[in-house]
Amino acid sequence: MLNLVVGITGSTGAIYGIRMLEVLKKLDIGTSLVVSEWGAKCIAMETKYDVGYVRSLASTYYDEKNMAAAVSSGTHKTDGMMILPCSMKTLSAIANGYDDTLVARAAGVAIKESRKLVLMVREAPFSAIHLENMLKLSRLGVVIMPPVTEFYTAPKSVDDIINHGVGKCLDQFGIEHDLYHRWGSR
């Protein structure tokens, strides 16, 4: 069974992390969840959910201040990590090896252990600093995936747009899903 680390940080778009956890739970894929302080605040501000509900979706939950959590060590086996949404603060911490939170540390572990890491970065517009940090990580094999709205699937709702972003992230891990119609499948 797959086991993925899921991080939710303090940038708009907490619903992407929540939807990902809902889908992974439905697919019976193991998850280790870490929610940053501001990720928790964004969940409360942006969604109808509370952190308790989000935690209930994960197989395991780790407090972001617990730097001794299993996901902080490379000896803890996982199949990769995704951070959705990924704030620019978290992006910077990861790009510069500043493991001051469990989310950043777990991402650093994914990089050092050559595990898949997908960052759904959220900001607009990007500054040169943001782009340099993304380029640095991309050169290391990290997948940078802003939730870019697509229209070729003819989305009819915000849920359709969210599902497309989540589905694109699942594709990076080779996880089959039916969250959106693929190009040429209509």
Can you tell me about this structure?
This protein has helices spanning 14-26, 37-46, 51-56, 88-95, 102-112, 128-139, 158-172, and strands at 3-8, 30-35, 60-63, 81-86, 117-121, 143-144. The mean pLDDT is 96. A 6-stranded parallel sheet has the order 3-2-1-4-5-6, with helices on both faces. With 186 residues, it is α/β, with parallel strands linked by helices.
Largest sheet: 6 strands, parallel
Biggest sheet strand order reads 3-2-1-4-5-6
Gross morphology: globular
Mean pLDDT across the residues is 96
Distance between the termini: 32 Å
Radius of gyration: 15 Å
Instruction: Please identify the structural class as seen in this structure.
Output: alpha/beta
Count helical runs. Answer: 7
Helix content: 40-55%
